[in-house]
Every structure is written in structure tokens, then in C-alpha cells.
């Protein structure tokens, strides 16, 4: 493993599989235990440095670190570091001076975790940066798929929605490809980046044509404000062409699952009855997120204390 | 005034000759010259070029003296072999009145290292709403001939048309920052494979090309001169080639960084590589080099853009665009154009001195190295190689994209009207 987890490309197949296997071991070790805690990171300090609101991801990382017995500090700074008056670099150096061993960072600017990694000695974990990547989300998605379908090699995954602005999509394309899955990206052309041709994924504009052939449908959140910038004409048209409703769900294969990284726009990209169906792994993904993040922190910090 | 006898310099890379500089002019060029009382400079192995002229420099004064001043920028320019630089108008206050351009011009005179020629803003406050008093700036002591809202495109086509027409009265030229603003909202880097991967909002080549295409048509329609700043794409080179073939009076510049660097530099998210227009692809770099070689692109201009540390040591999206260029410009041109065989030294003199001076209607610069001409010249050692150390630069800022890079050539001496501003690679004031 590299010292940091900045993007899905930091993990080769061996490392990525190690993370998933470790998550499974941790889950097994904790199952049925009254005290859901391992002593592995006792005395280590993990800082959650969150420049964007994200209850879900922050709590998931916080729980993961606490269950490994690490000391956890939450540092939230709304908006940019600039508007806060202290630069990202100064904040990072301050946290490190206080003895942090790992910094988990969520930031609205693509690349902020990379810069952070160049300034601090401890490990940096990217918890989502701008429209770039969200590697632990991809790991928990891969973990969820493997748990449900028993494999990743050859699994056909459709990722549907605002790929252009999605860090989840970027990380999933890279990681799923690394793990041998076949990814198809489906969106209106306006929500696919120029340059997508260089990604290890197929591209389609036609959800109905792809659905019968896939094992996994991963729906991405689509923000309604995108239509004011003419990425699509209206929420209704978007939902009609690219939303997953019961009718579309019916054409899926028997084993196929439906995923969503959350938070969902029910009625927009995903219908309520789909989100709550037995195919849906949405709640399971959240639980798996804690196990996978424990695995990541364990593997990055589990060695000898620095 | 002391006189200098330069022994054995290769004028424009030709055979060794001696040059006698006296009373601010080149008094004689020939073999085995001697002159009593003249300081003798052994220039064996050195190349003599006319003093370089930069059409595009940001000196940051007034307003951001923490990033650069006219004096520190002038020193950087002299060390880069320049004898004249055009100071862009996006200062604070904006150089949109005779008062501000005269202030900048005077600061340049006081520094005395290069001729600082102010560029006047096209529109009041660079706001793109109405014309600044272009005539007053032209008539001022600063004698402004180049007008630009650089940093911002004059995107309103009607306003651009009027600006092109209006400056004809005093033989001025509008230097356009070609960027269709609606296509570059939030743009961070070249739009392509790498922006898709890095999750940075793309700056499409078409946003530059669309404005250039529009403006060459406007310039032809009203019979005006147009200059295009920092051309960065292969498509722009094609449009310029087409326009020139049609007889449009258009000129264009390319920066050293666009001749050398590509969007691959963005991969580490180091904002030192953030610049506007952004670094493009290998294909664009090749097209720009060939465009400069065949004359489609007339000039190399640095777009020297100093920035304070806090404006670069931050998140990519929040960093200011721009990079230093004055001190390495000639080295980059040697590296990308001369050592690749695309341009000889006479060609370098043409693209870095003769043509930029002509575009700016700048008297006394870009002249041939010949008896009777002003003694504005640079001596460089093409065989030297050195690694760029930002801490050693004369600029007040440190945002050099060439840090740690080994580059060829060394400016040994620069003369401004017979007075050495640089000797043995060191600024003289």
C-alpha cells in the first residue's frame, strides 16, 4: 500500500483486494461482539478535516477510526480555506504539529488532498475532492458488489447520471476496472466530460438499451440546479430518460442489484419503490462503508507507530 | 558616457565580429576594432542579438507591489535580455487613464533597466462596457500604442469593433485576450482527457478559437490592425494562417510556456502550472512551434505573471493563473526552437525583438545590429546550461514553472542604449 489514499489509481489489484479482504475480516471479527471495537490504532490520532458538509461520510470515518480505538478529531470548515482566513497549508501544518497521524480530508476543490499530501508527513485519505475522486466510496461499492454477487471479475456495472460532476463515478470507473469489472457510463451527453474516451469504460446515452445486460446499476445523484445551466431541459425529462423507476427495474436480470451513493433525490434519478426494493443495496452500502474505511485506516496506519 | 568594445561576438549567430558601442549607439562593427578608452568585453563564443522586446508583461505596480514592482520586474527583464517590456493594464488602479500609464512609464524611467512601455486598457476598469480614453493615453508621455484588457476578453463584438476602429487614428493596436467568457465559466485547465480525469473544469480550445475567428473578420471588415495575445491552440494557429493568407492585418504572440509545457503538468495539482489560457496538449505545442517558425505567429511574448506565495500555495481552483517568464524566455526559445532546428538566431531576433517592436510601433528597439543604430543588444552564451532555481530569480515572486528544470543558454550582458544593464549575468542596478 502507498502511504496515502488519494485516488482509486493508488490501488493496484493486489492492494484493492487486500482492502476488501481486510474489511471482510474486520466485519467477521466484530460480528456478534458486544463491544464493537478493536484496539489496533490505540494511541493514534485521526483528523477528519471537512471543508464541505457531509454528515454521512464524516460519521462513517469517525466511526471507523473510533472502532479501531484511534483518537478522532473533527475539524469542519465550511466553505474554502481562503474564506476562513487560514490557508489549507497552514491548517494542515497546525494539525500535524498537534500530532495527527492521518488526515481524512473532504474538500470542494479537486486536488486538495494531493496538495495536502505534499505538505504533511502523515497519511492522507481522500474523503471526496471536488469533482475529482472519492476512493473510499468506490471501495465500499466494490465491497458491496462482491458481497452480493460473490465476485467482481466480469461483473457488468452501469453507472448512470451526472458523470461530469461526479467524483463517485471517477473513482468507481478506475477501481472497478482494476478489479476486473466492466463499466458502462450512461448519461445525457452534456453530463459526460469531454475526454471520456480515454476512460476504461463504455459510454452510452440509452439507459433502456443497457439495463437488460447489467448485473449492477449504480445511480448517481443529479442536482436539480444543473438544469439552470442547460445540462438538461427539466427534471421531468431527465427522470423520464435517465431515472430508474419500477418499469425499468423490471427488465433487470434476476440477480441484478441497484446502488446509490446517497444522498438520493427520490423521484428524480431514482423512484422511491426502487430505492426501497429488495434489489437496493443503498442501506447496506452505508454499513459497509464503515468496515471498508476501517480497513483503509488499518492498512495505512496499522504498521509501527511513526 | 563610457564606451564598450565587444570582441568576437557572433552577431545573430554569424561569424565573430567586434562591436563598438559609443554614445548610446553602435559606432562600428567589424574585425579587430580597437578604441582607446573603451571598456573591452571578451565575447568569444557569445551570440549578439538586438535587445529583446516583450509585448506582454505584468509588473503588478500599482496595486500588488508585494508580487512585483516596476523595478523588480525591470531587473528580471534585463537579466532575461530584454531592453523593452510592455506593462499590461490590469493593475490596481487599472491603467485606463493617461495618469496611470504615465505613472508606470515614469517608474520605468526611474528604474532605468529597460524601457517600460505601458499598455492601456481598452475599456474603463477592464469592465468591457465602454471605451477608456484611448486617445489621451496615446497622447500622454507614455505614448501608448498597444491597448488590451488582458486577463479579460473584450467579448462584446460591437465594443471590439469600435475599439479596433478607434485606435486607427493614432496607429494603435488592440491586443485581444481571446477567451469567450461563457465557454470558460469556472474553467481551470485545458478541456480534454486530463481535465476529465482530474475533475477540473475544462477550458475548451474553441473558446479561444471562436474569438480569434470573430476578431480577424472584424479587423478585416473595418480595416484595422489586430494583435492576438498568448495563442495557445493548434486551431488558433490555423485560423491565423487562414486570416493572414486573406490579407487580414493580424499579428499574434505565443508564450514560452505554451511552447514547452503541456496539460500533463496539472497532474500533481501544483497551481504553479495554472495559467490562462491553460497549458494545452502535445499537439498544440507542436503546432505553436511550427506556427512561430513559419511566421504565422509573429512574436514570443512572456505573459510574465508574478504572484505572491499565498495566491499560489493554495487549492488549484482558488489559485491565481499565471507564471513567471522574463528570466527564462530566451532559454525556452533556444530549447524549443533553436535546438530543434525550427529557428536560427536571426529568426529568434526577428520573433523576440524586430517584430514585437514593429507591432508596438516602438521606436529605437528591434533595430538591426548595424552602425548608427541604438545600442540595444543582448549577449548570450548558447553553450551554457543551468538548472532554474526560483529563489535566485530577480522577480519578487517565485512562481516559476521551470523550477528544477535544466535549460540551455545564459544571458551574459544586456545593453540599453549603450549602458550595460546586465554584465557577467548580473544586473548593474
TrEMBL record, chain A:
GO molecular function: amino acid binding; aspartate carbamoyltransferase activity
Pathway involvement of the protein, from the record: Pyrimidine metabolism; UMP biosynthesis via de novo pathway; (S)-dihydroorotate from bicarbonate: step 2/3
Classification via Pfam families: OTCace, OTCace_N
Residues where L-aspartate binds: 84, 167, 221
Keywords tagged on the record: Pyrimidine biosynthesis, Transferase
Positions of the Aspartate/ornithine carbamoyltransferase carbamoyl-P binding domain: 3-146
Function: Catalyzes the condensation of carbamoyl phosphate and aspartate to form carbamoyl aspartate and inorganic phosphate, the committed step in the de novo pyrimidine nucleotide biosynthesis pathway.
Family: Belongs to the aspartate/ornithine carbamoyltransferase superfamily. ATCase family.
Protein name: Aspartate carbamoyltransferase
Gene: pyrB
Automatic annotation (TrEMBL), chain B:
GO cellular component terms listed in the entry, alphabetical order: cytoplasm
GO molecular function: allantoinase activity; dihydroorotase activity; zinc ion binding
One GO term of the biological process aspect: 'de novo' UMP biosynthetic process
Cofactor notes: Binds 2 Zn(2+) ions per subunit.
Keyword presence, Membrane: no
Key words, A-Z: Hydrolase, Metal-binding, Pyrimidine biosynthesis, Zinc
Matching NCBIfam families: PRK09357.1-1, pyrC_multi
Entry's family note: Belongs to the metallo-dependent hydrolases superfamily. DHOase family. Class I DHOase subfamily.
Role according to the record: Catalyzes the reversible cyclization of carbamoyl aspartate to dihydroorotate.
Protein name as annotated: Dihydroorotase
Organism annotation: Trujillonella endophytica
Gene name of this polypeptide: pyrC
Amino acid at each position: 500500500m502507498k502511504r496515502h489514499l488519494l485516488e482509486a489509481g493508488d490501488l493496484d489489484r493486489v492492494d484493492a483486494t487486500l482492502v476488501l479482504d481486510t474489511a471482510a475480516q474486520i466485519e467477521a471479527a466484530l460480528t456478534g461482539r458486544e463491544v464493537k471495537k478493536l484496539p489496533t490504532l490505540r494511541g493514534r490520532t485521526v483528523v477528519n478535516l471537512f471543508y464541505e458538509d457531509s454528515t454521512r461520510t464524516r460519521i462513517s470515518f469517525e466511526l471507523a477510526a473510533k472502532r479501531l480505538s484511534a483518537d478522532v478529531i473533527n475539524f469542519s470548515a465550511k466553505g474554502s480555506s481562503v474564506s476562513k482566513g487560514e490557508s489549507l497549508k497552514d491548517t494542515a501544518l497546525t494539525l500535524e504539529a498537534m500530532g495527527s497521524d492521518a488526515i481524512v480530508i473532504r474538500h470542494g476543490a479537486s486536488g486538495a488532498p494531493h496538495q495536502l499530501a505534499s505538505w504533511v508527513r502523515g497519511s492522507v485519505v481522500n474523503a471526496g475532492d471536488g469533482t475529482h475522486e472519492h476512493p473510499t466510496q468506490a471501495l465500499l461499492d466494490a465491497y458491496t458488489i462482491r458481497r452480493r454477487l460473490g465476485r467482481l471479475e466480469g461483473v457488468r456495472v452501469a453507472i448512470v447520471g451526472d458523470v461530469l460532476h461526479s467524483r463517485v463515478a471517477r473513482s468507481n470507473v478506475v477501481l472497478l476496472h482494476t478489479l476486473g469489472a466492466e463499466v458502462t457510463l450512461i448519461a445525457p451527453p452534456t453530463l459526460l466530460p469531454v475526454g471520456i474516451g480515454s476512460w476504461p469504460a463504455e459510454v452510452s446515452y440509452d439507459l433502456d438499451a443497457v439495463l437488460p445486460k447489467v448485473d449492477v446499476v449504480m445511480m448517481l445523484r443529479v442536482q436539480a440546479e444543473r438544469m439552470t445551466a442547460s445540462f438538461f431541459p427539466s427534471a421531468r425529462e431527465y427522470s423520464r430518460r435517465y431515472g430508474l423507476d419500477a418499469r425499468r427495474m423490471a427488465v433487470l436480470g434476476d440477480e441484478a442489484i441497484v446502488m446509490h451513493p446517497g444522498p438520493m433525490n427520490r423521484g428524480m434519478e431514482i423512484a422511491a419503490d426502487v430505492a426501497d426494493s429488495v434489489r437496493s443495496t443503498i442501506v447496506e452500502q452505508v454499513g459497509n462503508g464503515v468496515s471498508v474505511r476501517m480497513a483503509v485506516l488499518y492498512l495505512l496506519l496499522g504498521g509501527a507507530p511513526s | 558616457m563610457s564606451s564598450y568594445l565587444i570582441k568576437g561576438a557572433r552577431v545573430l549567430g554569424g561569424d565573430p565580429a567586434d562591436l563598438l558601442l559609443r554614445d548610446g549607439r553602435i559606432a562600428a562593427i567589424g574585425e579587430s576594432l580597437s578604441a582607446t578608452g573603451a571598456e573591452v568585453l571578451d565575447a568569444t563564443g557569445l551570440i549578439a542579438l538586438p535587445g529583446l522586446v516583450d509585448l506582454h508583461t505584468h509588473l503588478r505596480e500599482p496595486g500588488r507591489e508585494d508580487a512585483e514592482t516596476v523595478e523588480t520586474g525591470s531587473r528580471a527583464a534585463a537579466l532575461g535580455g530584454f531592453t523593452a517590456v510592455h506593462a499590461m493594464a490590469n493593475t490596481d488602479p487599472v491603467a485606463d487613464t493617461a495618469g496611470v500609464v504615465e505613472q508606470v512609464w515614469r517608474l520605468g524611467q526611474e528604474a532605468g533597466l529597460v524601457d517600460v512601455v505601458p499598455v492601456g486598457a481598452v475599456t474603463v476598469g477592464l469592465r468591457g462596457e465602454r471605451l477608456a480614453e484611448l486617445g489621451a493615453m496615446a497622447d500622454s508621455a507614455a505614448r501608448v500604442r498597444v491597448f488590451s484588457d488582458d486577463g479579460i476578453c473584450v467579448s462584446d463584438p460591437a465594443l471590439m469593433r469600435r475599439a479596433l476602429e478607434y485606435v486607427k487614428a493614432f496607429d494603435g493596436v488592440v491586443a485581444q485576450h481571446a477567451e469567450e467568457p461563457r465557454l470558460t465559466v469556472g474553467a481551470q485547465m485545458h478541456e480534454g482527457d486530463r481535465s476529465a480525469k482530474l475533475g477540473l473544469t475544462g477550458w475548451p480550445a474553441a473558446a479561444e478559437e471562436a474569438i480569434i475567428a470573430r476578431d480577424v473578420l472584424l479587423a478585416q471588415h473595418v480595416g484595422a490592425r489586430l494583435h492576438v495575445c498568448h495563442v495557445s491552440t493548434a486551431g488558433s494557429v490555423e485560423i491565423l494562417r487562414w486570416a493572414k493568407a486573406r490579407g487580414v492585418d493580424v499579428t499574434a504572440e505565443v508564450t514560452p510556456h505554451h511552447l514547452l509545457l503541456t496539460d500533463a503538468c496539472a497532474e500533481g495539482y501544483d497551481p504553479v502550472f495554472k495559467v490562462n489560457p491553460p497549458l494545452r496538449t502535445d499537439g498544440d505545442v507542436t503546432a505553436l512551434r511550427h506556427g512561430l517558425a513559419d511566421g504565422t505567429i509573429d512574436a514570443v511574448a512572456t505573459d510574465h505573471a508574478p504572484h505572491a506565495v499565498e495566491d499560489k500555495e493554495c487549492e488549484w481552483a482558488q489559485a491565481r493563473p499565471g507564471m513567471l517568464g522574463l528570466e527564462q524566455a530566451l532559454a525556452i526559445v533556444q530549447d524549443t526552437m533553436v535546438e530543434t532546428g525550427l529557428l536560427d538566431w536571426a529568426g529568434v531576433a526577428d520573433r523576440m525583438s524586430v517584430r514585437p517592436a514593429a507591432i508596438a510601433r516602438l521606436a529605437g528597439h528591434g533595430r538591426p545590429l548595424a552602425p548608427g543604430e541604438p545600442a540595444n543588444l543582448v549577449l548570450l552564451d548558447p553553450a551554457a546550461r543551468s538548472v532554474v532555481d526560483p529563489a535566485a530569480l530577480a522577480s519578487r515572486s517565485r512562481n516559476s514553472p521551470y523550477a528544477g528544470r535544466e535549460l540551455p543558454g545564459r544571458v551574459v550582458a544586456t545593453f540599453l542604449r549603450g549602458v550595460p544593464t546586465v554584465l557577467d549575468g548580473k544586473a548593474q542596478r
